[in-house]
Task: inverse folding
């Protein structure tokens, strides 16, 4: 199954899809997964509670956000791949972040959870059939294909990786 095309997702997801390199989801997983995990594992403990501005998230908050968002995206992909036509709600990332106290977590525990979540996601996404990838559902009042969600999962992480590199490290 080739890369998602415009119309397979809401326009606001374009930047995430653009980040993910690969002609199909398996190529994108192969190209990005190890580098993503390596990057996360190199995040220094000394920066765990750092934020570059008072109203911004800490490094630990960003990791928690990545875990939460990935789980939500994968739930959407699973729902639609299994031909469940239930319209799914959106989620407000700032509300999620405000509802969890990342200071209670160690950076290492977040890295471990991130790695486990990523591994599970990669296995799930890599086993989707073409029929499952072309399924369409509604999330946050927008139609989206499972294939687009798969690319968004990777692109969303890469977006935040860039922010971490540019503003936190």
Result:
């Amino acid at each position: 199954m080739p890369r998602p095309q415009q119309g397979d997702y809401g326009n606001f997801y374009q930047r995430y899809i653009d980040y993910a390199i690969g002609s199909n989801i398996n190529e994108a997983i192969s190209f990005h997964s190890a580098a993503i995990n390596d990057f996360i594992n190199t995040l220094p403990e000394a920066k765990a509670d750092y934020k570059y501005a008072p109203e911004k998230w800490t490094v630990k908050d960003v990791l928690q956000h990545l875990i939460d968002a990935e789980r939500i995206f994968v739930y959407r992909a699973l729902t639609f791949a299994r031909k469940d036509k239930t319209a799914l709600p959106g989620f407000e990332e700032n509300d999620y972040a405000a509802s969890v106290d990342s200071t209670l977590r160690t950076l290492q525990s977040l890295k471990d959870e991130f790695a486990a979540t990523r591994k599970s996601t990669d296995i799930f996404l890599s086993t989707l059939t073409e029929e499952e990838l072309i399924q369409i559902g509604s999330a946050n009042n927008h139609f989206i294909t499972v294939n687009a969600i798969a690319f968004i999962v990777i692109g969303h992480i890469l977006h935040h990786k860039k922010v971490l590199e540019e503003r936190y490290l």
